[in-house]
Amino acid sequence: MEIAAQNRWVRQGQKIGVAVVGGARVEFLSPVEGVVMAINQDVVADPSLATRDPYEQGWLAVVKAPDLAINRKNLVQGTMTAPWMQNNIARLSTLLAQAEPGLAQDGGLPVGGVLTQVTPALRDRLVKEFFLG
After folding, report:
1. Measured between alpha carbons, how far is 94 from 89 in angstroms, rounded to an integer?
2. Contact (Cβ atoms closer than 8 angstroms) between residue 63 and residue 36
3. Spatial distance between the Cα atoms of 53 and 60, rounded to a whole number of angstroms
4. Is residue 104 within 8 Å of residue 96, measured between CB atoms?
């Protein structure tokens, strides 16, 4: 796991971190523009925290955004969040079912680690489509 250096200025949508998952480099983009104020060294040491506990111990960095109101206009928020998430889950499920029928959902909960269970070509496609990589 690599995360942008502390005190570095990042733009909204600019790469702020990189993880290697199943052999693929997955870039994480900054949701806001500003200065990186803190880096979670626990995630650098144990990247699995980012998926095991993303809302508590798995955060990557703190970015101080001087123009947060402007940045928020480019983010999915409020009542748009749930439909956006449902649409992306449906897209992912359809893509996996078409490309790898063995990974089709059977009505249960999605499982983690899908990038380690697909072909390199599909992994690259998933990273491009869902991580804007």
Report:
1. 9
2. yes
3. 11
4. yes
Place of tokens 């990189």: 18
Boundaries of every domain in the chain: 2-72, 78-131
- Condensed to tens digits (0 to 9), the pLDDT of residues 48-70 reads 898 899 899 999 999 999 999 99
Q: How many other β-carbons are positioned within 10 Å of the β-carbon of residue 36? A: 21
pLDDT tens sequence across 89-122? 888 888 888 877 766 666 666 667 778 878 888 8
Least Cα distance to 99 among 126, 128, 132 occurs for: 126
Report the C-alpha gap between 37 and 39 in whole angstroms.
7
The class level of CATH for 2-72 reads mainly beta
Closest CA to 35 of 67, 2, 76: 67
- Could you give the count of Cα atoms lying within 13 Å of 84 in the half-sphere of its Cβ? 8
pTM of the full structure? 0.79
How many Å from the N-terminal Cα to the C-terminal Cα in the chain?
Answer: 16
